[in-house]
C-alpha cells in the first residue's frame, strides 16, 4: 500500500509542476488542459529535471485530496465522492507510510474534506471547479482500472496514442525481460518503462520507451544474439503485442487430450489427475501400445533387434498374459489415491490402461474430438459397466462443438422442449435458431452446445464429415441418442459415428473418385476376366458395373481384384451394320430406350453413359448389336429432325466417306467432345470477359474439367449433341443458350464437321474461336484454319442453300453475340465439373438432350415425359446473365418472319423450329398453318404496338411479352412472366404467332457467381430440383457442397 | 523508475515461476512463499504457504517487466499500472478460487477474473 502513496506522491509532484507552470494562465485554459489529461496521466513529467521545490498553495491540497479520494476509491471501490472517511481510519491504508510529510498532507486534506464542506477561505473560486474536475478524473481512472466488468469500450480508452511511450522490438532472449527488470532496479536512470517477452516469440522482446536511445542504453551489456536491430512497433500494432490469448488450460479430470509425441502420438488419453503443484505434469490414462514379447525380452536382458518403426497396436494390457511371459509385475497401492496399480518396469497399469505421467506441454488439450471408436474403446474396455455409449456421460463431455448447418433437422435433448424436432434456421456463433415442428412455436434459440442433436431418420442418406470414414455417404441404420449407426452405401459395412459428424446428403457418393490407378468411370478388367465400368469408388472398394448386357450387374470389387484398365477404343458393328465408335450417339433398341453417348466399347459390349440416369452412375451396358447409331447413314426412324438434317445435301458425302461418316453430320460437336478428352486437359484458360471475368487462370487439370470447357465449344458451334459429356451437367446448363446460340452458329458447325474429317485436332480450335472469351494459345491459328476451311466446306456443299447471303456469313462469324452466350456457360461448366467429380448424376431435363430429339421419350429424367413442341421452346430460356448489348437478334421458334423465296417474293411464316444449321423450319401463313419449308433467308416481321412479342436477345431472351409502345428504334415491352416493362431495341424482339405454345421446360441458371476462389451457381430445374453448387476450385472434392432442395 | 519499491524479481526462469491470480505478478514459488505478493498482501501467502498454490498459477502467458508502471502504456493497457514495478504476466488462464474471491470482496479489493477466449 505504501507504494500506492508513493505513487500518488509522485504524481502530485508532477502535477504541482504543472500547477505552478500554469498559475499565470487563465482558468479556462487550465481546465481544458486538465481534462485533456484525464486518461493520459503519465503524459507529463517525462523529463527528470522538472521537480521543483513545492510551493504549498491551497491548490496543492486540493490536488492531494483528490488523489486520496481516488486512492480511497480504489480500495473501497464503491464509495461515492460524498462519502469520505479519513484514510487514517483505514489501517491498511496508512500504516506503512514513512513520509510524514505526505502523511500530514493526506490527513489534513482528509480532515478538510470531512469537516468543512465549504471552501477554505483563501481559496480561489476556480480551484473548486478544478478540484471537482480532478476528483472526477481520478475517480474515473480508478474506476477504469478496477472495473470488474471492464468492457472493450473502456479498454479502448487505453489505446495507445502518439504521446505514449513506444514499443520497440529487439532481438533478445525472453529472459532478458527479467534481467532488464533487475537492471532497472539497480540503475534507476534507465528510461525504459517496460519489457515484454512473449511465449510465442522466443528470441525477441519488446521494450517500451520513449526513445530508441533508451532502448539501446538498456540493452547495453546484454548478451545480444541478434543484430542490434531495433524495430519500432507501429502504434496500431501495439495492442496486438499485448493481447495474448490466455491459454485456458482446462485439464480437468476426465477431460480428453491427445498425446503430441512419442509412441502414443495422436493417441487419445484421458486426464486422470494433476501430478504436481505446479500443474506442469498430469497423469493420463492411455490404451497401451506395448509389445509384450519385446518387453519380456528387454526385461530379461535378451537383445533381440526390434524394428523401431513398428508401433505396437493399442491393446489393453493383460496382466495375466504378462505374467505368463515371465514379466515381473508388482502390485502397488498409490499412496494418494489408494488405487492399486500393476507396475511393470516403470510403467503403471490399471484395468489394462497405461497410466502415464506426462508434461502438460506434451499433450494437446484443445479441440480434441474423440472419434466414436476411440470412445468406445475407452468406454467398453475400461469402465466396464457404465459403458452406455450414447448416454452422453462424461465420455462425451469434451465433445463440444456441434456443427449445425442451416436446414438441418435437429432434436432437442434437454429442457422443456425435449424431443421436439425442428429445422435449423440460422446458426450464429454460439446459438442456433431452430424452427420447431410445432405450429405454436416460432423460431426458438438454443445455445449451440448442449441442447441440440442432429436428428436423422433411419434410412436417411448422410455424408460423414469427419472421422475415419470421412467423405463416405452412408445410410442411417439406427439412431441411439447422439450416435448413429450407419450402413455404408457401397461396402455395406456398418459403422458408428456421432450425429454431429454426419450431414444429410442426397448424394450417393463416396467423395472419392479414384483409388490406386483407377478412377471413376474407368473401364477395367477384373481378375476373373470380367470387365466393367467403375461406377463408384468407396473407401476400400469399387463398384463395378459389369459388362453383362441385358441386366445391370454390379459387383463390389477390391482394388487388388482389378487387373487392368482399358483405354477407350474399339469399334463394333451395330445394328444396320453400322460401325460404332466411342462417343457415338446410340440408341438402345432392345431394352430401355436410351439415347446416349457410347463411353466404352469392349468385346461387343457397349457402355453408354447417360447423365440423366441416376442408377449406376449413368452407365448402361448393352450389346453393341442392340444399339442404333443415331444420325447414322442408315437412318434413324426416331429422329425426324436428324432425318431432316441428314437429307440436307449440304454436307458432301465425300466428307462422310469414312466409317464414321454419319456422325459428324448429325452431331457436329459430339466428336469434338470426344476428342476433347485430351484437347484442353492441362490447358490454362482465362476467362477474360463477361460476368465471369476472373483475373487468374483456371488450370484444368482433369478430364472432367476439360470437358466442361469443351462443352461451350460444342454448343458454340451449334452442335446439338451432348454426346459423351453426359458426365457433366453441362447439357442442362447449356440449355438456355442453345437456341439463341444455335442460330448464329449453325453455319459454323458445318465447318468443323468437315474439317474434322481430316484434321482431328481442329474442332477444339473452332471451339475456341467460338468462345472468344477464353484465351487459348491456338486462337490465332485456328482462326486461320477456320477461314480456310470454311470456303472449302461451302464449295463442297450443295447449292441448295446458298451460304452467300450476308446474314449467314454474319452468323458464321464468331459474333460477339454468340460469344457472349457461350461465355455465360463457362463458369457453370466448372461447377458442373466439380459436381461431377462427386459423380453427381442428376436427373435432368430435356435441356441436356440434343435439341434434335424433340420427344421426351428420350429423356428419362423428365417427369411425365413432358411433351414438347418440336420447336422445343424449352430450349430457348435464356440465361439471364447473358451478354446484353452485343448480340444480334436470335431466331426463336414461334416468331413471325418473312421468308424470302427465290424470286424475291417474301411470304409470311412462323418459325417452327430453328434447325441446327441455322436455317429454320417455317410454317407459312401468319398463323403457321400453311405448308412448312426450310429456309435460311428470313426476316423478322417487325411487330406493331400491342403485338405479342418474343424477346430475341439480351438477358430475357426467349421471354414473351407484349409490345406496348414504340419509341423510335426502341420498343417498350411488357414481359409476360415478370410483368416488367422493358425498353428494348427494335431488332430484339419478334412478333409471336399466337398459335404456338411456348414451353419453358428447361434448366435455368438463376445466378452464377465467380469470386476469387469459388464458383457458385444457382440452378433451377423447372420440374425437378434446385441445385446450388458451391465449388471451391482449389479443393474441389472436399469443398463442394451440394444441396438438393426439393 | 518511479519512486516505488519494486517487487521481487524472479530468481529463476524455470518451471517454478508462478503468477499471482489477482495482480499477475510473477515470481518463483519460493519467493511467493517467503514474502507473499507485493500487491496482494491480504492473501497472506507468506503466512499460509498453502495459499501460494491457491493464489498463484504456473499457467500464464507472456511476461512483462514493468519498470515504471505509472508511465508505461503497456502497464496501463494491461491494467497493472497501479501495481508495484516488477515482472508480471500478460494473462493468467485461471480465475481465483471462489473463497479467495470472497476474501477480496471482504477486503474491498477489486478482482477481475481473466477473460476466457
From TrEMBL, chain A:
Coiled-coil segments on the chain, per record: none
Any GO CC annotation of this UniProt entry: DSIF complex
Family: Belongs to the SPT5 family.
Upper lineage: Eukaryota, Viridiplantae, Streptophyta, Embryophyta, Tracheophyta
Biased composition (Polar residues): 790-807
Organism for this UniProt entry: Capsicum annuum (Capsicum pepper)
Protein name: Transcription elongation factor SPT5
Major localization listed first in the record, in broad terms: nucleus
Chain positions covered by the region annotation Disordered: 1-58, 653-675, 788-812, 844-872
Composition bias, Acidic residues: 7-27
From TrEMBL, chain B:
InterPro entries (alphabetical): RPABC4/Spt4, Spt4, Spt4/RpoE2_Znf, Spt4_sf
Protein name per UniProt: Transcription elongation factor SPT4 homolog
GO MF assignments: RNA polymerase II complex binding; translation elongation factor activity; zinc ion binding
Statement: the UniProt record of this protein carries the keyword Kinase: no
CDD domains the UniProt entry points to: Spt4
Gene3D superfamilies in alphabetical order: 3.30.40.210
PANTHER family per record: SUPPRESSOR OF TY 4, TRANSCRIPTION ELONGATION FACTOR SPT4
Keywords: Metal-binding, Nucleus, Transcription, Zinc, Zinc-finger
Similarity field: Belongs to the SPT4 family.
Cellular component aspect of the GO annotation: DSIF complex
Protein role: May regulate transcription elongation by RNA polymerase II. May enhance transcriptional pausing at sites proximal to the promoter, which may in turn facilitate the assembly of an elongation competent RNA polymerase II complex.
SUPFAM superfamilies: RNA polymerase subunits (SSF63393)
